[in-house]
Amino acid sequence: MTAPVLEIHLSDSDAADALHHDVRVGLSADPKWLPPKWFYDARGSELFEEITVLPEYYPTRTERELLRRSVGQIAARSAVDTLVELGSGSSEKTRLLLDQLAATGSLRRYVPLDVSESALRAAMAAVAREYPALAVHGVVGDFTEHLELLPASQGGRRLVVFLGGTIGNLLPAERTGFLTALRAALEPGELLLLGAGLATDPAVMVPAYDDAAGVTAEFNRNVLHVLNRELGADFVVDAFDHLAVWDAAEEWIEMRLRARRAMTVQLPAVGMTVHYAKGEEMRTEVSGKFRRDRLGAELVDAGFGDQVWWTDPRKRFALVLAEAA
């Protein structure tokens, strides 16, 4: 077994600078907002894992089953030597791909990218143990900033995997920038496998982000715990209610925190005093849901040509294999 390789392009100080910037910009805006990436400290990651097995939360199990049914076809169409995973986390679903791609005989290397060095090291060690013939090359980085730093293929071509519906957390301009940057980082003929939630009945979508057990509400409020800990803020976390709303015009679920009362919050680390009116709402996440024609056109506009689509029987989720033109 070859020892795993780890590149670090995102340090703790970089993350702290990014948090300070996002808080200054987001909490001085009207309406206020915060990026969803700040949910995911250790507690937030645990809560999200709990969310993925809730009865209301269909995206994770739907994508996993869809991948299980289509992975043979994906591997047969890919024939790649390098599998790159963006936002790898625990790399659980990727094992389905690793098994199939390894069976084709072409796969030589696995490249996970994640912002969390600790999570990445754990995932790399597990994959290295389970697939001793595979080289593992991790990259600590942000998929919105460091795509050009991904290692090149080793004489073949790469398959970049971006699962979990995370593409929906990017606002339209951010999504355009991400897809364009990803295409620029790929050679012609290299591939993207994208997992995307599809627009369906709001009566199905909204409860997935507002479960009866209140786990998503705790997950949403966890961002305030992060700000209290990292910035010395004094948010009264229980003074905010969780909301999940379907925006039909934008076709996304919007998660918000709503102040139960008027309050003033101090954030010493960024030198801010922030006022909330009673009932004021702050956006903490969007989760875009797509239609095939719109997402397909965005991929084409970014420079991805041939596309193969797989959807579940209820048409709630899609996997798209797209080739860099």
Kindly describe this structure.
The protein is of the alpha/beta class and 325 residues long. The protein has a single domain (1-239, 289-325), classed as 3-Layer(aba) Sandwich (Rossmann fold), CATH 3.40.50. 36% of the residues lie in helices and 26% in strands. The chain has helices spanning 12-27, 42-51, 58-78, 94-104, 117-130, 172-185, 202-205, 215-231, 292-302; strands at 5-8, 82-86, 109-114, 135-140, 158-162, 191-197, 240-247, 252-259, 263-267, 272-276, 281-288, 304-311, 317-324. A hairpin with a 4-residue loop joins strand 7 (240-247) and strand 8 (252-259). The longest helix is centred in the N-terminal third of the chain and has 21 residues, at 58-78. The chain is globular. The two termini are 35 Å apart. The model has no long low-confidence stretch (mean pLDDT 95).
Please render the helix and strand layout as text.
Blueprint: E1 5-8, H1 12-27, H2 42-51, H3 58-78, E2 82-86, H4 94-104, E3 109-114, H5 117-130, E4 135-140, E5 158-162, H6 172-185, E6 191-197, H7 202-205, H8 215-231, E7 240-247, E8 252-259, E9 263-267, E10 272-276, E11 281-288, H9 292-302, E12 304-311, E13 317-324
Helix pairs in contact: 2-8, 3-4, 6-9
CATH class: Alpha Beta
Pick out the low-confidence regions.
none
Mean pLDDT: 95
Q: What share of residues is helical?
A: 25-40%
What CATH architecture do you see? 3-Layer(aba) Sandwich
Q: How would you write the strand order of the largest sheet? A: 1-4-3-2-5-6-13-12
Overall structural class, as computed from helix and strand content, comes to alpha/beta
Element string (H = helix, E = strand): EHHHEHEHEEHEHHEEEEEHEE
Number of strands: 13
Tell me the Rg in angstroms: 20 Å
Distance between the termini: 35 Å
Q: Which fold does the CATH topology refer to?
A: Rossmann fold
Q: What is the name of the CATH superfamily? A: Vaccinia Virus protein VP39
